[in-house]
């Protein structure tokens, strides 16, 4: 039975949200927030472990494609809810409407404890580590760096890199503290620069690198599809493991929804920006990873994975530089040439730009989750404070920065991010299923955008999330169960804060 088409709501022209936050983000800025939240270090590094696991360029590209399609399905499904409920806190507010306050709180707690704070610490650390490759940072004495807490945590190890990481987190928190327009402008500038640099690599890689389509068509030596990976689930497990690596690069697409109170005409802008931003990033990822494998045979890519302290994108750019040297007749046999050194500097700078922008977008958006939780009495009360001059959740920003910095010195955030995708896809699946829930709970509410392919597309995304969580439990039971445990550690806090709700 056909239903009456829903009318598009009047354009929201308010400049300030009722929470006090300032509406400043337009369509272009919203798209760049989506893209900069996604494009971090993963696009430069994850091709190597994926190549080692799958042993086939075709399977690697298929994993990137499938991960992109799944991510796009999730974003297009989530866009319906974003258009229906445009409030500060995004996914947290959605879950509160779908499943109640406890489930919403566990999501917000997972963001604070694992998903977002650990991600910010990890990406900022990659930034600092890249600086260290260009300009060696100061280190403490071996005796001090060997200092440990309980023989597990080494807070002084790589001290110079950690100090710069903390400085970056504090700098970007300060930028976003002073206004959403500054944070969104930083995202726009850095995202545009990163995309331009990536296309430069693609053009050079496909023209003067000496690469070949044979590299795309040739599997690793000794490749046997029946024995791909040693996982308990065979090829399926290997594909899912590779897709988990790709999902780390795609993650962050829903961060824009956290800024629902600061987006102009959010019920139209957020769904539009999600669709455009995720589609563009998917295309960029497929293009750059095709270029990597076009330039470098997969056996060499596997060797990169097995060589400590190497980054796949750096090695690819070195090959492009070497080919250019041969083309122009300026190759040096004994010492690296200017082109080689310039290539290394270029890719290191590109990683700096990407991780700087990605860290900024995460800091900008995620603090709004804790702001919304505090408004509900389910987080530290002061996090609900909106700065009277800058119109930002200033205390929530400071709390988020403090915890991220603690994770940096704990040295544990790398382990935490291993659990990130498992935890994130529990909530991604719950969010997509929420489309069905809200269509029953709010059947007459105007929906500026309806999920494409409903009910098939949302149902497929939910099934993909269930499959990924299941395979993660089988392949990485310790990391997965630890991630689940960290989420559940929020329950005592929830019960404590809930008692204060009148």
From TrEMBL:
The keyword Plastid does not apply. It holds the Pfam family AA_permease_2. GO terms for cellular component: membrane. The keyword ATP-binding does not apply. It is found in: Membrane. It is a multi-pass membrane protein. GO terms for molecular function: L-amino acid transmembrane transporter activity. The chain crosses the membrane at residues 21-39, 59-85, 106-128, 159-177, 189-211, 231-250, 270-295, 338-358, 395-413, 419-439, 451-474, 480-497. Keywords: Membrane, Transmembrane, Transmembrane helix. This is Amino acid permease.
């Amino acid at each position: 039975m056909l239903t009456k088409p829903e009318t598009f709501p009047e354009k929201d022209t308010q400049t300030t949200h009722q929470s006090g936050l300032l509406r400043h983000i337009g369509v272009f800025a919203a798209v760049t927030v989506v893209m900069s939240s996604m494009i971090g270090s993963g696009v430069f590094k994850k091709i190597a472990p994926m190549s080692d696991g799958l042993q086939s360029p075709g399977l690697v590209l298929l994993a990137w494609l499938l991960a992109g399609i799944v991510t796009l399905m999730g974003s297009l499904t989530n866009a319906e809810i974003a258009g229906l409920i445009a409030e500060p806190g995004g996914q947290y507010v959605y879950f509160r409407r779908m499943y109640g306050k406890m489930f919403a709180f566990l999501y917000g707690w997972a963001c604070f404890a694992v998903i977002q704070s650990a991600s910010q610490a990890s990406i900022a650390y990659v930034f600092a580590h890249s600086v260290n490759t260009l300009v060696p940072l100061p280190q403490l004495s071996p005796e001090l760096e060997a200092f440990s807490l309980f023989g597990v945590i080494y807070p002084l190890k790589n001290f110079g890199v950690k100090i710069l990481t903390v400085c970056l987190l504090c700098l970007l928190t300060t930028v976003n503290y002073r206004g959403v327009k500054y944070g969104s402008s930083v995202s726009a500038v850095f995202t545009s620069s990163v995309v331009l640099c990536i296309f430069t690599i693609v053009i050079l890689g496909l023209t003067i690198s000496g690469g070949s389509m044979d590299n795309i068509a040739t599997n690793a030596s000794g490749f046997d599809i029946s024995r791909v990976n040693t996982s308990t689930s065979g090829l399926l497990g290997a594909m899912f493991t590779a897709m988990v690596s790709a999902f780390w690069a795609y993650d962050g697409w829903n961060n824009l929804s956290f800024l629902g109170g600061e987006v102009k005409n959010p019920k139209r802008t957020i769904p539009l920006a999600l669709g455009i931003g995720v589609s563009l990033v998917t295309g960029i990822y497929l293009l750059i990873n095709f270029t990597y494998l076009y330039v470098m045979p997969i056996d060499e890519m596997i060797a990169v994975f097995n060589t400590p302290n190497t980054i796949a994108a750096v090695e690819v750019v070195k090959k492009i530089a070497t080919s250019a040297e041969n083309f122009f007749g300026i190759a040096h046999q004994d010492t690296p040439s200017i082109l080689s050194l310039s290539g290394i500097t270029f890719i290191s700078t590109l990683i700096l730009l990407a991780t700087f922008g990605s860290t900024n977008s995460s800091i900008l958006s995620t603090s709004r989750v804790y702001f919304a939780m505090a408004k509900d009495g389910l987080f530290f009360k002061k996090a609900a404070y909106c700065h009277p001059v800058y119109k930002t959740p200033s205390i929530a920003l400071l709390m988020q920065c403090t915890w991220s910095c603690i994770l940096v010195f704990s040295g544990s955030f790398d382990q935490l991010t291993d659990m990130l995708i498992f935890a994130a896809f529990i909530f991604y699946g719950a969010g997509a299923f929420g489309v069905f829930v809200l269509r029953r709970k709010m059947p007459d509410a105007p929906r500026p955008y309806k999920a494409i392919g409903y009910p098939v597309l949302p149902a497929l995304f939910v099934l993909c999330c269930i499959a990924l969580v299941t395979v993660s439990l089988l392949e990485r039971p310790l990391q997965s169960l630890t991630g689940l445990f960290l989420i559940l550690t929020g329950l005592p806090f929830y019960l404590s804060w809930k008692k204060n709700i009148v």
